[in-house]
Design a protein that fits this description.
The chain is of the alpha/beta class and 663 residues long. It contains 18 helices and 29 strands. The chain binds alpha-D-galactopyranose.
């Protein structure tokens, strides 16, 4: 497996480091404490545009030189950022057209960050100029380990420049205006365009907007940011070929700001790597450890099953939560190890030292306001020590037992206004299935429905609204896979046009015909004759004898919908396909029907095991006990964290962890 951060020996450990917020005297303490904690890489220059380029044509690299030199002298590597996510006031004032406009036509002011229009030429040119300057200056700096472009891309803009760029993008996608009119179904409500100049971003309008328009704008906005990312990456590569390049994605939130799978096409492979940020929601509804696993599995999915890097997490509370949610003693240690268990090549945080001022002065850090004599810093040191002991894990990969299908276009389309139910969000449903599987010890990739799925024994498609055709899923099932499809899947095509005869693109494959949707009200449930219940959604659904050649069968029915089905099963080729015409309130009774084999069978819920394996056969079993009670883990080898032998009678204490190099 490729070493995604070859300049760093072993696993990566560190965080965002913003020394420009501190007097020079603090820097020496910083690096001394970093060394004490085992930090080997920090992200620098993330928001320092105003420092390196304080005015038009003015470049000041003394401070960044000093930071980079200090890191090099102390054997700490730099993940050198381009600083382009936060244009300074001078830039916005000089180029007011680069400030973003919201859907209501309001131009946002500077004063926070990410105030840019991705389509403004002045901004596009400025970021490439900065990236080139940095590439030229630091390409052979001994501290440089990798490049970090921008920060958490998500910004979209609705200004006139965006409108022009949108038209160009639409011309590339659809060709002529007739094709655009067809794709957006503009005969509805007399929306037909007769001139490209009439086409605008989906700015606020009088009533429910056109869903095709909204969907294309999402795609366009994601592509525009990807172009921006690539333009900086290419500028750097011209000066520093061969150094890994990344940016911190946010695949882990319900946010779905971008089509991360499309991004993944440009962030995997030669000298690019997938890195993601993850901030859990302490108030649930899913337990923190399962959220961690979801974030990690989604990131590994983006990396196409290979290694990836956790670029940011919180050592304790996150400022933007609107309240302080402290992590309990030991909690962030287990979370951090869990990311590594699920394939991260290290653990990074936002940020190294807690800021004294600014919007995030109450965001936690590796080094809190309380200084080194704090629970958090002690845990940081413990983790640094552990990661050093886990160096040999680098480059090993996880082999998941199942996949959950995640399609960003589906997520976007199913949240357009005018949907038949307000209680069928896609992303939270994927999380719910993921958590139910995680509690059973099943590790899942989050995979795109168009990828080769043959390596997964079971594939879940809990919410796959948008699908052009069933070809890839059919191949998977006929080849021996088990596919589980949730309700309201296969319903529309890529233009958000309803396929005739629901469940549309999946009707033939499932052998099921949905006569009508019967969405449920908030809090309402519906009983099935197998003793289970569903919520949010139900259907009048039947076996489609013609389509399935009588091979589909009803396994359970809704009580009260005579001679229809709620759970369907069909044997097809070498495989099986299941269809659920509701969202089961408890997923376990359904999961019990499947042949799901956990990594380590027989463990109680809350005891997490994930195995990482090298190509040469060496394996590491990560065992994380998130419960209070001791358990035994049936394997043999050496616990790398303690150096002690492990056997099937060894106790893993409550709230603790072991990483067993297996014999
Ligand atoms: C994101 C950003 C950081 C910081 C943290 C706080 O990860 O990239 O700059 O704002 O959130 O949670």
């Amino acid at each position: 497996m490729t070493d995604i951060v070859p300049e760093v020996e072993g696993l990566v450990f560190g965080g965002d480091y913003n020394p420009e917020q501190w007097p020079r005297s603090v820097w020496d303490e910083d690096v001394a404490l970093m060394r004490e904690a085992g930090v080997n890489m920090v992200s620098v220059n993330i928001f320092a545009w105003a420092r390196i380029n304080p005015g038009p044509g003015r470049w000041h690299f003394d401070e960044l030189d000093a930071i980079m030199d200090l890191l090099a002298e102390n054997g700490i590597k730099a993940d050198l950022a381009t600083s382009t996510a936060a244009p300074p006031p001078w830039f916005s004032q000089r180029h007011p057209e680069t400030l973003p406009v919201d859907p209501e036509g309001r131009r946002l002011n500077y004063g926070a960050r990410a105030e840019y229009c991705p389509h403004a030429p002045a901004f596009q040119e400025a970021v490439v100029a900065i990236a080139s300057k940095l590439g030229e200056r630091y390409a052979s700096h001994p501290a440089l380990a990798m490049w970090h472009i921008g920060n958490e891309y998500y910004r979209s803009c609705y200004c006139d420049l965006a409108a022009a760029a949108f038209r160009t993008w639409l011309q590339e996608r659809h060709g002529d205006l007739d094709a655009l009119n067809d794709a957006w179904g503009t005969t509805f409500w007399s929306q037909t365009f007769t001139d490209w100049e009439q086409v605008l971003p989906p700015r606020i309008s009088a009533e429910t907007p056109n869903p095709g328009h909204l969907l294309d704008f999402k795609r366009f906005s994601s592509d525009a940011l990807l172009r921006l990312f690539r333009s900086e990456a290419e500028a750097i590569e011209r000066h520093a070929p061969g150094v890994p390049i990344t940016t911190n994605l946010m695949v882990t939130g319900d946010f779905a700001a971008m089509d991360y799978h499309r991004w993944g096409e440009h962030m995997n492979g030669d000298h690019r790597l997938i890195a993601t940020d993850h901030y859990i929601l302490p108030e649930g509804p899913i337990e923190a450890e399962a959220q961690v696993a979801f974030g990690a599995d989604a990131s590994r999915g983006l990396a196409r099953g290979g290694p990836w890097l956790l670029m940011e997490q919180a050592a304790n509370s996150s400022a933007w939560r609107g309240g302080y949610f402290a992590k309990r003693p030991g909690e962030q240690l287990r979370h951090s190890l869990s990311y590594v268990a699920h394939g991260s090549e290290g653990v990074m945080y936002f940020q190294w030292r807690a800021s004294r001022y600014g919007a995030e002065r109450w965001h936690s850090a590796m080094l809190p306001h309380g200084g080194p004599e704090t629970k958090t810093f002690r845990e940081v040191k413990t983790l640094g020590g552990w990661l050093r002991k886990l160096a040999e894990v680098k480059g090993s990969v996880v082999r998941p037992q199942a996949a959950i299908l995640l399609d960003f276009e589906s997520v976007w389309a199913s949240s357009n206004p005018g949907e038949p139910s307000a209680y069928m969000p896609a992303y939270p449903e994927l999380r719910r299935w993921h958590a139910a599987l995680w509690r059973r010890g099943i590790t899942c990739d989050l995979a795109n429905p168009a990828w080769d799925l043959s390596r997964y024994p079971v594939v879940f498609a809990p919410a796959l609204y948008l699908l052009d055709d069933d070809a890839n899923l059919r191949r998977y099932v006929e080849g021996g896979g088990t596919l589980v499809v949730g309700p309201y899947s296969g319903i529309v095509d890529r233009n958000d046009h309803v396929h005739p005869g629901p469940p549309g693109a999946l009707r033939e494959l499932l052998g099921v015909r949905v006569e009508e949707f019967v969405p449920l009200r908030e809090g309402e449930t519906i009983a099935l004759d197998d003793g289970t219940e569903g919520h949010a959604w139900s259907e009048i659904a039947r076996v489609d004898a013609a389509a399935s050649g009588e091979t589909a069968e009803v396994v359970a029915s809704f009580i009260g919908y005579p001679s229809t089905g709620a759970v369907f099963h069909r044997r097809l080729g070498e495989g099986d396909v299941w269809y659920l015409a509701t969202r089961p309130t408890d997923l376990d009774p359904f999961l019990d029907r499947l042949d799901l084999v956990p990594e380590v069978p027989g463990l109680p819920t809350g005891v997490e095991t994930v195995r990482r394996a090298h190509e040469d056969g060496r394996t590491y079993l990560f065992a994380l006990n998130h419960t209070d009670k001791p358990v035994t883990i049936p394997t043999e080898g050496t616990d790398l964290l303690t150096g002690a032998d492990w056997n099937p009678r060894t106790h893993l204490h409550g709230n603790s962890a072991a990483v067993i190099r297996e014999r």
